[in-house]
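Quarterly update from the structural biology core.
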Amino acid sequence: MDSGDLKRLKNLVEKRLDIETAYQISRGLRWQEATASWHSVEGMGETIGMTIQQRRMNQELPMQAISVPNIDGKQAPGLIKIAVIGDVHDQWEAVDGLALQQLGIDLALFVGDFGNESVEIVRAIAALDIPKAVIFGNHDAWYSASHWGKQKCPYDRSKEDRVQQQFDLLGDLHVGYGKRDFPDLNLTVVGARPFSWGGSEWKNPEFYQAHYGIHNFAESTAQIVAAADQAAYNTIIFLGHCGPSGLGDRPDDPCGKDWQPIGGDHGDPDFAAAIDQVRQQGKTIPLVAFGHMHHHLRHTKQSLRTPLLVSPEATVYLNAAAVPRIIQTDQTRQCNFSLVYLLNGTVLQSSLIWVDQNFTVTTEQILYSQPALAIEG
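Predicted structure, tokenized:
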């Protein structure tokens, strides 16, 4: 592709004109050249580039249905279909709940960051008629956990407590420092430390002391393990906002630090220690789901974050923070979910899907699949 086409693509995107033509040009580019060209436009934001990205994916990876793991050509009995919903950041509408139902989800896991103490979003999540578990993220106590957050609070904290309102709405659906048993699925979801910012520094000590009586990482680990000890089932799914430490220190690793100074493991050490202790007790841990560290990297537009790793113990660590989770244009609306298929305590497959306003799966990116697994389209 010559420099003239690159310039033409940049001009089309810069003027917000003719996404279809821009897409046709970008098809002839290597992917990194294309992303560099549209992200180089100052002030363009993510939407135009992601629209072209989705258009390319739609054309190059057409999907009529989600690929479903099967054995000998038949869907395995007992197969559990889990949707992990990454950081919402105020992007949740009633149609998203309908999409989960249309997808036939057995369990929905929400990793938090519904918005900056967005009570109405949490109210909508709580009302979903689907088995679910939820953990709160750092944005869900944005104006309450830190001194600087309290200074920026847009409401009178002496008259209302929006963190408590969110707790009240979810009740035991919130599994932070707790657990929720799912008898129909023969598994328990255990929550890590809620409201996490990630990293090796113990942040917001007054908030954690006031709400949980916890003062440090060691006490936090003990609280998570205590919740797992109460699990009714041997199969445990861990749900966190930030993921555990130990998944790599490169900026594009699942919890890698992608801001200056670049690099470093920004995962939660208490979460990692709790997983290790619970595993040593003989529990089966097929999945650790989390978000917080967005797939789009801060320091570069040339690549995305690695969303999934598998440990030697066959635990799948899934970062579901594909943000923004909704892409809207004049012609279409698409939202994403991360899917996980679980059978007998083992993850068979995980993927990131985009669903349009008609509940059609437009694209599916397979993130992990068991070797030699048959896939049914």
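The mean pLDDT is 86.
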